Amino acid sequence: MPPSPAAPHDVAAVLRLLDSRDLPAAARLAAASASSSPLPLAAVLLHRPLPPRLGYSLHARAARAGLLADRYLANALLAFYVRLPDHLPHALRAFDDLPRRDVVAHSSVLAAFLRADLPRRALLQLRTMAAGGYGADDDVAPSAHALSASAKACAVLRDLRAGACVHGTTVVRGYGDDGVVLSALVDMYGHSGAPGDARRAFEEIGSPDGICYTSLISAFVRNDWFDEALRWFRAMLATDGVYPDGCTFGSMMTALGNLKRARQGREAHAQVVTRGLCGNVIVESSTLDMYAKCGMMVDAHKVFDRMKVRNAVSWCALLGGYCQSGKHEMVLSLFRQMYVEDNDWYSFGTLVRSCAGLSAVKLGKEIHCHFMRMRGCGDVIVESALVDLYAKCGVVEYAYRVFKRSIVRNMITWNAMICGCAQNGHGGRNYFNSMSKDYGIPPGIEHYNCIVDLLSRVELLEEAEDLVNKSPFRDDSSLWAAILGACATHTNPDVAVRVAKKMMELEPQYHLSYVLLENVYRTIGRWEDAVEVRRLMKSRKGNLLDTVPAADGSQTCGGIEYGLELLKLGVVYRIGDGRSTRIWRDNWIPREHNLRPIGSTRVCRLRDAKELGLQPVSKVSVFAAHWAHCSFILETNCAAVAGKLKA
């Protein structure tokens, strides 16, 4: 029904009282004039803020006066209930009582669903609007407000397909150049893992403002496109009339911290101070985190000390920085201070990691018990840190107990459990297989590295080789290098030849492959193949046996580096078994390199050549690697390399 005629003086009087913030008097006047017009009631209901009890009484007054059929008053009641938290049922009832639902009513309900953390129902409401509403509804084609709210719902759900549908509806309905809607779409693409689409949506905006730029930069940072975020930040600064705000600088500090750009981070910090954003807790926490990630803990602590307001993010950033820097005692000290000022459980994961770094399993157990009393269980970050703590400290039973009770297990949890089993000799292979079989989590490269190392330690080289060949990382040289190192310790010529050839294919300049392959060929009597490998090694670009620069910049004999690798690969035999002189006789070491085996001398520490009764040639240093049960005389002019073969 059409609205009742309004008494102009009543409406004007109510508005004057609302402007003077005399809300009770305005409500009394609106209730008294309800019989003549519902507009004063609607004006009071639309006022912000309105106490809930006063709104309830006005609703009851309108119901007694029979005014609920008025469209304007009904929409005002709907807007009042939508604004109230935890009043979604009342808002839906007010929506159902509307005589005719227009686009404003539908948009209000859509926003109510989104505010109540029901993004799926918000998208269903948009579909209802696009289909024409309910029965006798007015034209309810989605408005710009409804489309931007729907894009936000897709961002919460990280639903790229639904977001693309909203984008299509935006273009079809003629809002393709609306900056508010397109900014929401940019944010949606950023949350959905499509930064390229976010950039394309941004480029459709005719005159982007600061909010649009901030949405794009945040989308890049959220998807680890840090260099692209820096580029668009510079473009934002070069645009007239567009200025970065606190959210923009917060995203930029995150990008600079991940890129380890300390100098540019200082420049951005100077801009923050110049623009008067130092009191913004988001900017200050991001600045602190940037300094911490760059390893500049003194500057990070200065920012922290100057903060007037500290939240969980700032505390976690400072604790995480000290933990990454290896200053675990500082983490424990700061945690005690934090616990007094801000009793927060978010930093328990960092605290547990510091206990693991200190091997303080007793303190870790105390923190574990305290966390259980505070929070119970279910936090995957803390539980992953606990698994890592107990595994590193050798208490695998505790690690397994925490692992089994974890409701949510991510890649970090699995990796910590597998590494712990590998380091402590437990069944890591079973956990590795259980990841994908029982829980549907595909193993990453770090998990394959752990299981290959585990299999190689127990001489299951063929199984390790087969696992790598069947993995999606079969062309990753780090996996083959792990097997290659095991082949040098455990005798398996067939696997050693295949792995060495694979490494030569993936990393042609990796000299250990050639050394091992030549060693295997000589061991099984394939002398011609050994000579061919030697020739191939010399023919490689840069000659893998040439001299290399020392740490002090002088040139040292390549035989020193070569001797190091021989020691690591076990090519040098035990002294006293009659085979140590074979190194020189069989040309294991090129004759042009100043590396000589001592046939029967056991040296366990650095000595002067005269103690061995040898005549020094220029500067002669004798080194020994007692772990390899062999010794060498190395003729070199660079004493700095001497420490390389000590113990």
From TrEMBL:
It comes from the Eukaryota. InterPro entries: E_motif (IPR046848), PPR (IPR050421), PPR_rpt (IPR002885), TPR-like_helical_dom_sf (IPR011990). PPR repeats lie at residues 209-244, 311-341. One of its GO terms (biological process) is plant organ development. Keywords: Repeat, Transit peptide. PANTHER family: OS05G0439300 PROTEIN, REPEAT-CONTAINING PROTEIN, PUTATIVE-RELATED. This is EMB2261. It comes from Miscanthus lutarioriparius.
